[in-house]
């Protein structure tokens, strides 16, 4: 869905939710801080966007699962 395909309030809410998800998941420094914690290199354990009170989900395709050895 792009900005040109918003035809009703439901599409608008979906689009705004997507934007919030991207903002909270991939924006630095939280993205890098979470990755360094998972790698065992804790540089900083503070997350700036935790102020919203919602769960922060991070996805790292570059990290391998320690149990399976797969990405």
What keyword list fits this structure?
71 residues; 2 helices; elongated
3D structure, described in words:
The protein has two helices and no strands. The model has no long low-confidence stretch (mean pLDDT 76).
Count of individual domains = 1
Overall geometry: elongated
The helix content, as a percent range, equals: 25-40%
Unreliable segments of 5+ consecutive residues:
none
Q: Sketch the major β-sheet.
A: none
Structural class, judged by helices and strands?
A: mainly alpha
Number of DSSP strands?
Answer: 0
What is the radius of gyration computed over CA atoms, rounded to a whole number of angstroms?
Answer: 16 Å
Question: Secondary-structure element order, as H and E?
Answer: HH
* C-alpha termini separation: 27 Å
Percent of sequence in beta strands: under 5%
Mean pLDDT: 76
Number of helices, counting only DSSP H or I runs of 4 residues or more: 2
What kind of assembly state do the chains in view correspond to?
Answer: single chain
Task: Record the SSE blueprint.
Blueprint (H helix, E strand, L loop, with lengths): L8 H18 L3 H9 L33
């Amino acid at each position: 869905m792009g900005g040109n395909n918003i035809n009703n309030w439901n599409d608008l809410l979906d689009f705004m939710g997507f934007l919030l998800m991207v903002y909270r998941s991939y924006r630095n420094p939280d993205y890098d801080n979470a990755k360094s914690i998972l790698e065992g290199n804790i540089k900083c354990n503070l997350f700036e966007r935790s102020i919203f009170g919602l769960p922060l989900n991070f996805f790292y395709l570059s990290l391998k699962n320690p149990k399976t050895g797969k990405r």
